[in-house]
């Protein structure tokens, strides 16, 4: 039986993007939550909770973007000009954050507020830009032949702005849940309250985006609202409801890691729902993964490299999280 290499690569890139979203998502969320910290000590704790892992988290963005360029060059050549503005905004936000991690702890205390603002703005910009780019892709990209046929501002729409807000809310929830896991005492209690607020907002934006998406394209509505497809898609909203209940219950419980895992579950189920809507298109509604794929020989060659590199990245990431497991306390840091 011949292996469908284009489908295999689509799954690899989808997995890389999801891993990036949830890993870099919580440290972007911590930046978004930075203004809610009540003291300089609390801000230091927030930074220390992600200092050992933030740069490794962004490895998955490189894998996803580089994989798209190498494996689906047609999709890359269409998506980039369509999304120049949000992608540049995202990269600038990530650059700001990277500079903050290097220089904030070296700054004099009276000047540290400058880096705090840069960390917040960089995180907010990157998160919002990612959400806008996602919304722009879902709503559809204008294609003529093999080229982008839209304008400079086609990415800007009410739906893409909504998905931008939704991702900011989701990242803030992940960040708050991460701090529940990594902190203790008053700091943990403070972010437990923030997590409750963002959990309510998260359920709200999931509902709005989920109800909006099927009406963007007839094929989306057909997939979600007609028989027999609805029998396969119905478990998605049911799982969202179950995970929402688990999240709210865990925020009142004593298992510090459970809220974070429930938040990850919400992201995963939402991501699966997105995949159900889009598949098999990589540039909806015109280009499928098979139309965008590189030649079979290239896909096979790159797959051999991926089978070596991806396990190495997974092993490194897992080792980093294992080494720096446990609570972060005042006076402990990695700078």
TrEMBL record:
TM spans (from-to): 6-37, 82-101, 113-138, 158-181, 197-217, 229-248, 260-279, 299-324
Query: Which GO molecular function entries does the Swiss-Prot or TrEMBL record give?
Result: electron transfer activity; oxidoreductase activity, acting on diphenols and related substances as donors, oxygen as acceptor
Question: Where is this gene product found?
Answer: Cell membrane
**Which keywords label this protein?**
Cell membrane, Membrane, Transmembrane, Transmembrane helix
Question: How is the protein disposed in the membrane?
Answer: Multi-pass membrane protein
Q: Alphabetically, which GO biological process terms does the record hold?
A: aerobic electron transport chain
What is the superkingdom listed in this entry's lineage? Bacteria
GO CC aspect terms? cytochrome complex; plasma membrane
- Which family, according to UniProt? Belongs to the cytochrome ubiquinol oxidase subunit 2 family.
Q: What is this protein called?
A: Cytochrome d ubiquinol oxidase subunit II
Tell me the organism's taxonomic lineage: Bacteria, Pseudomonadati, Pseudomonadota, Alphaproteobacteria, Hyphomicrobiales
């Amino acid at each position: 039986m011949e292996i469908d290499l284009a489908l295999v690569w689509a799954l690899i890139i989808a997995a890389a993007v999801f891993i990036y979203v949830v890993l870099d998502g919580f440290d972007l969320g911590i930046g978004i939550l930075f203004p809610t910290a009540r003291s300089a000590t609390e801000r230091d704790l927030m930074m220390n909770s992600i200092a050992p892992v933030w740069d490794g988290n962004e490895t998955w963005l490189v894998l996803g973007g580089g994989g798209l360029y190498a494996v689906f060059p047609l999709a890359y050549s269409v998506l980039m000009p369509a999304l120049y503005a949000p992608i540049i905004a995202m990269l600038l936000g990530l650059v700001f954050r990277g500079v903050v991690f290097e220089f904030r702890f070296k700054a004099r205390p009276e000047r540290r507020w400058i880096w705090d603002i840069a960390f917040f703005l960089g995180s907010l910009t990157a998160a919002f830009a990612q959400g806008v780019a996602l919304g722009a892709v879902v709503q559809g990209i204008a294609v003529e032949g093999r080229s982008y046929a839209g304008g400079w501002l086609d990415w800007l729409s009410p739906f893409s702005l909504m998905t931008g807000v939704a991702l900011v809310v989701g990242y803030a929830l992940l960040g708050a849940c991460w701090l529940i896991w990594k902190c203790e005492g008053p700091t943990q209690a403070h972010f437990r309250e923030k997590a409750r607020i963002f959990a309510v907002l998260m359920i709200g934006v999931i509902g709005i985006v989920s109800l909006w998406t099927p009406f963007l394209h007839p094929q989306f509505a057909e997939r979600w609202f007609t028989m027999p497809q609805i029998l396969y898609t119905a478990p998605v909203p049911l799982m969202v409801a179950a995970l929402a209940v688990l999240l709210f219950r865990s925020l009142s419980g004593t298992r510090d890691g459970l809220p974070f895992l429930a938040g990850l579950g919400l992201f995963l189920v939402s991501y699966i729902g997105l995949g159900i809507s889009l598949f098999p298109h990589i540039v909806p509604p015109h280009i499928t993964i098979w139309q965008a794929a590189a030649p079979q020989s290239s896909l096979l060659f790159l797959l051999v490299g991926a089978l070596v590199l991806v396990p190495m990245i997974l092993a490194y990431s897992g080792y980093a999280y294992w080494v720096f497991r446990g609570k972060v306390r005042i006076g402990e840091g990695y700078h």
